[in-house]
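just leaving the lab so this will be short. what follows is a protein written twice so to speak, once as letters and once as structure tokens for the fold. can you read through it and tell me how you think this chain folds. anything you notice is useful, everything is just below:
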Amino acid sequence: MTARQAIDKLGNAARKSVVKEIQQLLDRRSWHGVRMSNIPKEERKRIIPCKLFVKEKYSASGDFEKVKSRLVAGGHRQDARLNKDKTCSPTVATPSVFMLATIAQAESRAIATVDIPGAYLNAHMPGNVRVRMRLDASISNVVIQLNPSYAQFVCDDGSIIVELDKALYGLKESALLWYELLCERLRSIGFKQNRYDRCVFNRYEKDGTQCSLCVHVDDFMITAKDEDHLEHVLNDMTNSFGDITVTRGRKHNYLGMVFNFEQQDSLEISMLSAVEELLNSCDVGSGIASSPATVNLFRIDASSNLLSTGDKEFFHSVVASLLYLSKRVRPDLLLAISFLTTRVQNPTQQDLCKLMRVLKYLNATKDLVLHLRGDDFLCICAYIDASFAVHDDYKSHSGVFVSIGMGPIFVKSSKQRLNSKSSTEAEMIAVSDGLNHVLWIRNYLCDQGYKLPAARIFQDNMSAIALFKTGKSASSMRTRHIAIRFYFVKDRMDSGEVEVTFKGTDDMIADILTKPLQGTKFKELRDRLMGYTK
């Protein structure tokens, strides 16, 4: 919400939150005032705007927690010539978070989530960078009330021009400046980066036990052997970063997902409030469906009418929201959503009907949560499957499911980029593409300090398996053009990194990611996909 909307809705709570945010910016010396007359005319057009936003925050249990405000600089108005390599900052990969949490559950580790208030404001703007920003009249009034010395900088329209001294949220440089500072401070207290995810850090305590953390901008999840070891880490972080907001216990809200470690047998991850909010915004009512898609999911009716501009925007927005859900806690939606993402440019009435089917299914299953268990996490299992020539352009569809025990660490459902001439070739494309993710997960865990056997890749096509194992074709002219793919897989098999094993279609979990199953078969594979059964 904007500050005005928040004040109209929340009243004094919003006002206090706005004042608190601006006071923090002043206390941190985030800027200094500049008189307009001292700014050369040719530089005035480079002055960027800012906006103040207000948000209601809730705890992992769904209870109202606080009202939070944030002043955001209009970085979109900065010089477009800024080199992306000098402004981009990494964020933790979702599979990394899932593996960190799954291992914490398996090893009964103590867990904390940490937020660093005003994190970006710890980072100074480089001396050779000058960014000026306009505070509008309403924000300027609050600034003057808190620090009357700013009255000398007021412009004719009531605004104030400031020059930024700290990495304010919204600036193109801010994320990278904060990340570089973060890495420096974590290294100073003994942490070392994982080479395969630059937002995962580990350190070893004096007794040899490991502490691991992952970070997404300024939000941390930290795991340690027990509460005493965790307390030691939190004290070091407080000394390094100043005041930090810490949540401890067995239930945490992290990156919009609720991680529930309270059960002994598995970790539960959910986004129930996001599901409810999406369904309410789409006005699904009491409509329900038994599966996300009918058997006609991939069929395109060329005679179906295009959506109006308003319906097209609705379609695109909802598909994006469902994609966010399905890539995290609802992989049972992923097949349908992966197809609908290919339709967002020119969606039709038929596409809208398919989207409504997904929403009705979500309405019927909104209480489903993801289950992860890491009792077998030292063995990576990947189910990789393909459906041959199912799209209207006769391209095939791949599905990948990777687990380190029970439930998915990584899932993917996607249309293949090239046409294949046989089901065997389609399977080989799926495995060679999916192998990239399997190898990354294996390398990540090895860098976390675990010794792993070969990752097990399950396949239901004996011909493809034979090609992977031999590295050559019995009918060279038919498969010569895909030789590079099975040689890539065979090379990793020979190195001991992976092994390819037959798994019948009835037990192929990835089957649910390649075709719109129905009835009992869909429910059986969904329960395995979501980690309810193994």
About this structure: The longest strand covers residues 64-73. The CA atoms of residues 266 and 440 lie 24 Å apart. The chain has three domains: 3-259, 270-364, 373-529.
